[in-house]
Amino acid sequence: MKQIQFLVPLIFFLLSAVLTLSVNPAEAQKIPEVVTDAAGISVKEAKDKTGSETKDKTVSVKVDALDSNALKELSDSTQMTLDEKKKDVSNTVVEGQKAMAEKEHIQNKADKLKNELEETKTKIKETGTQISKHDRQQLQHKSRQLENEYKTLQKKLETKDEIAKKAFAESSKKQDEIEQLKEQLHNLQLETSKRYSPRKKALIMGSIVLITIIVLFIKDKLIGFFENRLITRGEKKHSVAALRVRTFLRIFSWSMSVLLIAIAIFLILELFGFNSTHTLAGAGIFGVAIGFGAQQFIKDIFSGIFLVLEGQFGVNDYITAGQHSGNVEDINLRFTKLRSYDGNIIYIPNGDIHSVINYGKGYANSVINFYVDINQNIDQVFALIRDVVSELRSAPDLVDEILSDVELLGINAFTPTGVEVKFRIKTAPQSQWMVGREVRLALKNRFDLDGIKLFQYKYENHPVKSL
User: Fold this and answer.
1) Mind listing the domains of the chain with CATH numbers?
2) What whole-number distance in Å separates Cα of residue 10 and Cα of residue 24?
3) For 132-189, what is each residue's pLDDT tens digit?
4) Is the pTM of this model over 0.70?
5) Cβ atoms of residues 353 and 275 within 8 Å
6) By the 8 A CB rule, do 63 and 71 touch?
7) What distance in Å separates the CA atoms of residue 42 and residue 54, rounded to the nearest whole number?
8) CA 391 → CA 380, 429, 441, 447, distances in Å?
């Protein structure tokens, strides 16, 4: 299994964990009386006198002073109390939500009554003496009735609001108690693990290691299966989309490996009585210090992720990154691997890649320029260029490489070396060099047949000065 990539951060994390390991202290723990009472008299014998009369209905118990039976009774009692607290919290939250729903319903009803009351008062004010005395009295009676109903609803709203606030406050308090019980249960489990026999510890540790290896093996097989199914063979295997899929799968595989191994290590540590909560807290602090020394590593990781997300280049692309050029053979989160033209391997950290020239995006242009004698017929030269490129476009080995007709730029310059003729041909990505070589060869042969002279350098034009 290829687990090398995550070994560096895992070593950093394990180093910080080892330096901050802390055994669960043997001092007395405050445990609710309802838990100790349910556990029986054997637990009370281990109570610390300093905490036996506390006002918060808790007793201080030295867990390491309990025998195995009392420890088991206390663990079972804590678990039962924890389950009951969870049910109470659930019921309290439901009660609060029900009160909030009723409050919202009453509020809607109160809003309607308020609008109707305002409309009635407005109607009484606007009609004035235009209606009969009887109708006016009916409107006034309706107004008083609506006002009384509105006040009644307001009182109900206040009652429901108090019920909801009380329920949520109580659930919050009980949630704190649940967290305390979880911590106590965790400490009791640690103490129980410490008392396992060496044979049992070895058996459990072996089981954890074996299960971790099996899960990692299955994970690697599944990742490989999905990679083979999602990425087809052939040219698509090296496309940008395929590269992104492979990279995401690698990131997921790397993360899962780190997570599984970390879980296995902490399970083993807890088997020997180490408190993982304290270890994680200390590892986090020490990890910050290590992070300052691993800035370049982190920079490379994030740069690698963005290189893949943005699709700047892919496997088999020919690129120039800084002062280095070559075909991309591999990309991972740490570095990019290039193969130069002379066969050398170049490893470039992703964090050091600031600019990239990609010669394999969409299409390329093969730019060709040469010099002909000043006395040659330029129109004839242009016609030969068009004929040669047209013939090459129909060649079986170049039909997919040349994508358009020649684009003549004409006479580019008059130079001491003759008339510079320049043109370009649109080609498939990374085919510009091969197409350029074929076009130059074909032009040379045609020029020889038609008697077109390229510029000929004459040494006699530049005599050597004598000293």
Assistant:
1) 7-22+197-293 (1.10.287), 29-194 (1.10.287), 307-358 (2.30.30.60), 364-461 (3.30.70.100)
2) 24
3) 777 777 777 878 888 888 888 888 888 888 888 888 888 888 888 778 777 777 777 7
4) no
5) no
6) yes
7) 20
8) 17, 21, 13, 15
